[in-house]
Amino acid sequence: MITRFKSKRITSMLGMLPQMIGYFDDEVDNYSFPPKQTMRLKRIMGYDQHRLSKDSTTVSDFAVHGLLYMLENGWIERKEIGAVVTVSLCPDYFVPHISNIVHDKCNFDSDVICMDIAQGCCGYLVGLMQSFMLLEHMQDKKVVLINGDVLSHKVSKKDRNDFPLIGDACAISIIESGGDGDIYYEMHIDGKRRDALKIPAGGFRMPCSPDTSVMTDQGDGNYRSLDNICMDGSSVFNFVQVEVPLMLERAMIKEGKTVDDFDLFLFHQPNRFMLKKLAEKVGLPEEKTPMNLVERYGNPSGASIPLVAISNCRESLLETDNSCCLSAFGSGLAWGTMFMNIGRLDHCELLELDL
User: What global pTM score does this model have?
Assistant: First the structure.
């Protein structure tokens, strides 16, 4: 899918992190590998620490706290909100949806549309697409876009491939009509490679049971159950290195742009090693391409693009217009990009919460 949007903009961004920090050095003994071997990953992959929410915490806890914070501090008024779009892989329940819970807790009127979308790594791009389309039919109303996951609850602590990587977080963006310039949007899906990122049990195909919770050695020294997330790291790496550079290069040619035309490259954050290889392949300057989210907070799935923007570019986003290339890639398998101006935001903040 390739399309364009006109007169749409992001006006505020709020990031939220749990206060609890897991340190890579403290988790080395979780794994069945020699500690010296495991510590090499800290340097190669960029692991250091990640944020872990409490076992009882859900995405709606972050979303409600953040949106009430916005309302109470004058970021937005209830009467301005036309829709709440939530993008997450971690529903509180099958039913009701996260956005319905937010609707209740924030006391919205019945004409505020609620929508939940199940999407992981490309969740911010998918959420922006849906928000832009809703704005076409909402006159002067605004869309609240929520991206959040608590995937640490679904990762085995004995799985060295996945546990050091995952971080819990949530981001809320205010999307509204206005702004100059077209927005270029491109998205691709390959369902044939969907099993490269998977949680086998928990849905209707394979409900959770005592059998699915049994931890076993996966044949490579990593222990997990069918209830845990499973990532084929080499397949995902190869997919990103092949598909994403081709997409970015084609998109730039199509739009008559070069790397020099962009102020910021705000990418999904799988790990520093993968991003560095991708940046080298496309020729992206490191000073324009933040790659430090995993070592600071972990990989927060669909919230990674707004979080990497808030935590690295806050002053620039508040003070100036930035020509940005957004790109995400992962579960689905899905990969996409967006060219848009982001800047002179009304608000841009990062909160740490006891959640």
Answer: 0.97
